[in-house]
Amino acid sequence: MAVVYYNSENFEENPLREPNVKLLYVCQADVENAIIPTAMHAHEEHLELQYISGGRAHIRIDGKAYDVQEGDVIVYNAGVLHDERADPDCGMSFYNCGVKNFQSACLPKNHLLPQGIKPVLHSDDMADTVRAIFHELYEQISQKKFRAAAVCHHLICSLLIILENQLPHENLTHRKFDDSFQRCKDFIDKNFTENISVEDMSKIANMSVSGFSHYFKKVFGLSPVQYLIRLKIGASQKLLIGTDKSITKISMELGYDNVTHFNNQFKKYVGTSPQNYRKLWVGNEQFKHLNHICGAMN
Fold it and tell me: Rounded CA gap, 203 and 225, in Å?
């Protein structure tokens, strides 16, 4: 046995500048849950951290594609669009959590990484520790353990510090779009529920329709139309899980002419209907409750 003495004078103080860091949610998804893809979406008011606990996945963050695998930590800054799809051959499992009121030096609130930096971190020698923290966060909340809030606060602060410490060891690369193309992307991201045509997009980017379409696909790996569809499907997934709005109402809010068209596009991308997707993620009891509300609203 060895005794290691702790002398606070030899250690810096907690580098987190915000004492009110708050854990919003924590999720554990196995291979069966994660087989359903999540389309383009963003978390406007909080930071999300995801740990790949098994398998592999293909993710797209701010338009750039990444292949991730077990041991990787993905950082989704507030407001950054992303989508996720498990590798069809081996699937994936993961933990993720939402964090609010995080403040790092010289960065906007709820941003762990500067804009344009590769958002995939490698936990390396800390993999077991990172996985254990995510697991304990989930256990504390799901089992409603005594003083879970206090335990989770310290766990999430520890996780954030560990990830900040990992940054100097990463091969970080910046990525910046041409200003006119960035303006166009920002316009699409904010107005995707409107009837935007490729012609409208190309005008904002000051490019020809064919040149814009070619460059857009080269940058994002998707055509402009496919990108718009993913934005709509991603927004619908959030509404299906987080609200009691009817599927008809959701389709109308996202700019679909009719609910049948929405259902078909959703099933084509996600692999199941909006109704089945809602049932899977909210559970039978809540699903019955939502169906009752939606039935009364229609």
Answer: 15
Is residue 255's pLDDT more than 90? yes
On the 0-12 / 13-18 / 19+ scale of CB atoms within 10 A, 285 is exposed
Residue 205 has pLDDT above 70, yes or no: yes
Q: Following DSSP, what letter does each residue of 94-107 receive, concatenated?
A: EEEEEEES---TTS
Give the helix/strand (H/E) hosting 25: strand 22-29
What pTM does this model have? 0.80
Residue 283 to residue 261: CA distance in whole angstroms: 26
Superfamily of domain 179-297: Homeodomain-like (1.10.10.60)
Q: Angle formed by the axes of helices 224-242 and 259-270, to 10°? A: 100
CB 164 within 8 A of CB 106: no
Please, which pLDDT band fits residue 14 given cuts at 50, 70 and 90?
Answer: low
Q: What's residue 107's pLDDT?
A: 86
User: Where is pLDDT greater, at 101 or 220?
Assistant: 101
What is the architecture of the domain spanning 13-169?
Sandwich (2.60)
d(CA 128, CA 124): 9
Structure confidence at residue 123 (pLDDT) = 83
Tokens matching residue 231: 């934005």
